[in-house]
């Protein structure tokens, strides 16, 4: 089932989310619905707080991006052995990040019609549980690492806007207000601030 995505301005998007365990009610259904919602919105990642569930859960598909990307551009965004992932992350914790950073365009399903250039570490090492609640510790690079960091931030109550310079944020204020009020629509179900 495709769930409505919370628009910028909802308090839950600024909440540090709670960890869950395998007995969390309706977990499998929630994960299925999150994948359906993400793909229905033509996204590459989605975090549970974006669908009004404040838990440490997110899904990422960097494989679709990898497969669609021009080969020359791909070399700058993916390391050779990375062909992208389709993964569920539960109770994730970033253990380490590289000193090397890079800037690339980011958008967010909760902030439709806006993209900005964001600086992030090139690689991260992250500990998490997969959908089967098997513990994983992996290192990711480039675009895959960026997508994971973006969704991980949602579980921390952080938006990509927080990485922008104050002047840039100030210039975006009017557009963000319009998004919060539902004056800028998306092509997928959204829940706006009342």
From TrEMBL:
Give the EC number.
3.5.1.88
Q: Any binding details for the cofactor?
A: Binds 1 Fe(2+) ion.
Which residues are named in the active-site annotation?
151
Which CDD domains does the record cross-reference, listed alphabetically?
Pep_deformylase
MF (Gene Ontology): metal ion binding; peptide deformylase activity
What this protein catalyses is: N-terminal N-formyl-L-methionyl-[peptide] + H2O = N-terminal L-methionyl-[peptide] + formate
Cofactor(s) named in the record: Fe(2+)
Q: What class of enzyme is it?
A: hydrolase
Q: Which UniProt keywords apply?
A: Hydrolase, Iron, Metal-binding, Protein biosynthesis
Which family, according to the similarity comment?
Belongs to the polypeptide deformylase family.
- Output this protein's name: Peptide deformylase
Species of origin reads Niastella populi
Taxonomic lineage from the root: Bacteria, Pseudomonadati, Bacteroidota, Chitinophagia, Chitinophagales
